[in-house]
Amino acid sequence: MMTLEEAEHCFPQINTSCRKHSRPQSESMIISILMSFISLITVVLNLLVIVSISHFRQLHTPTNLLLLSLAVSDFLVGLFVMPFQILLIEPCWFLGALVCVLFYFLTFIIVTASIVNMVLISVDRYVAICDPLRYSTRITQKRVKICVLLCWIYCVFLSFLFLSDNLKKPGRYNSCYGQCVINISGVADLILGFIIPVSTIVILYLRVFVVAVSQARAMRSHITAVKLQSSVTVTVKKSELKAARTLGVVVAVFLMCYCPYYGFSLSGSDIVLGSSTDLFIVFLVFFNSSLNPVIYALFYPWFRKSVKIILTLEILRHSSHQAHIL
């Protein structure tokens, strides 16, 4: 009969096996159910964003292509990262050292892609607000597609750079059998994965905010003689300002979700998923992928219209891709 001490190990038959956490089974079950539900919501909502932007021709704009790339990374977080993260609630990893490294390798690509996509979105809004006359010539669909491709290539490169030692010898940093631990240079990850991208995002959006405020004041000023061309320009600026405000909310939520995790790294603390606090901090990073589609639903009428067409199966009509969404 198995003793109590053996039952506390991941692999009772192996002396070097890792010990299980003493977390109550009810607590572990609640955490698993909650994360599974949020994972499902993340997949469904981001899939709706992907289908909407991909299917409807009116939504094929440079800005929406960046939102599409962001939705793909968020979709992969819900489909791949969150389910595997449930397995890491306990230290017992039953899938082997190689799968452990591959999991972190793909997770690093996906999460870094979300950060770099935020940088691209900030650049797009910066040009649209601060240099609107040359926006259509500087930000084209072709250039945006190239930037999105380079974004994902850059994320793969960083993953190989940071995890090359782990890929050469999986499990080399495990302290006990059944553990899933990798080693990443905290300083390099902090600088390349957070400080530089976030600094870029904050600087660009501060500039956008200053210009947007000045333009809003100009629009409210009493101008008696306005030419037709000027009125068209004002209308365009209003739409750009609205898009900037919406994407500003996306960026703000992104910062709130990511800053606690990297704050720990900046303070020199280690994050271990055995602690409920650390588990919440890591989960908050992934929860950002669930919030982005909710923001779209609240602020983008085109997203609500496209979701209605998708859910009512009108999307199956032959000419549905030409529907008036905007």
UniProtKB/TrEMBL annotation:
Enumerate the spans annotated as G-protein coupled receptors family 1 profile domain. Answer: 45-296
Q: Domain of life of the organism in this record?
A: Eukaryota
Q: CDD domains annotated for this entry?
A: 7tmA_TAARs
Record key words, sorted: Cell membrane, G-protein coupled receptor, Membrane, Receptor, Transducer, Transmembrane, Transmembrane helix
Q: Which GO terms describe its molecular function?
A: trace-amine receptor activity
Q: Where are the annotated coiled coils located?
A: none
Which SMART domains does the record cross-reference, listed alphabetically?
Answer: 7TM_GPCR_Srsx
> Where located?
Cell membrane
In terms of InterPro entries, this protein maps to:
GPCR_Rhodpsn, GPCR_Rhodpsn_7TM, TAAR
- Gene3D superfamilies assigned to the protein according to its UniProt record, in alphabetical order: Rhodopsin 7-helix transmembrane proteins
What's the main place this protein lives?
membrane
The membrane-spanning stretches of this chain are 29-53, 65-87, 93-123, 144-163, 191-213, 246-264, 279-303
Family designation:
Belongs to the G-protein coupled receptor 1 family.
What name appears for this protein in its UniProt entry? G-protein coupled receptors family 1 profile domain-containing protein
Q: Give the originating organism.
A: Channa striata
